[in-house]
Write a structure and sequence with these properties.
Layout lengths: L2 E3 H4 L4 E7 L12 E3 L3 E10 L2 E15 L6 E7 L3 E6 L6 E3 L1 H11 L48
Antiparallel strand pairs: 1-8, 2-4, 3-5, 4-5, 5-6, 5-7
Length: 156
């Protein structure tokens, strides 16, 4: 739980530095990747015009397989410019920002984990990893053979 004391926040900025277990993200059995580190955070909360402005960085390490070449991947994911604003009018003693931090971290996770942005992937003809070896296969200009039956279609 990541909580901010309201009485302290109204006097001075509050540093929030710590870690939460990987279960904090509540990913369950994600098939694409696994969280392999604790969720670490380095945040600062400021009182601004009756609101709490929380900014900083949240990090986690994930590992899985590349979505293009199927090679193992280990990558740190970070929310570099996290900015959250919370109204303080209805908050009594403590402000719990855990759910908002969790949501921002989930949005930062990749939909398709890649070993690198310019990953060439696997050749659709012979299956060779194009990052490691060039193949002599040439894809048909018309595209996938699944749609080749449409090449002879005559529309009038």
């Amino acid at each position: 739980m990541i909580k901010v004391s309201i009485s302290r926040l109204q006097k001075e900025p509050v540093e929030l530095i710590g870690v939460e277990p990987a279960a904090f993200l509540e990913l369950g059995n994600e098939e694409q990747f696994a969280v392999v580190s604790d969720v670490s955070y380095d945040l600062t909360a400021h009182c601004v015009s009756g609101n709490a402005l929380v900014s900083g960085v949240v990090r986690v390490t994930i590992e899985g397989v590349c979505g293009r070449c199927l090679e193992p991947v280990r990558r740190e994911i970070a929310t570099e410019k996290l900015q959250l604003l919370f109204p303080l009018e209805s908050v009594a003693d403590e402000l719990d920002i855990s759910e908002d931090v969790r949501s921002e971290m989930l949005l930062a996770l990749p939909m398709n984990l890649l070993c690198r942005e310019d990953c060439a992937g696997l050749c659709p003809v012979c299956g060779v990893n194009r990052n490691k070896k060039k193949c002599r296969c040439h894809e048909r200009a018309t595209g996938s053979p699944v749609w080749s039956a449409l090449d002879d279609l005559k529309l009038e």
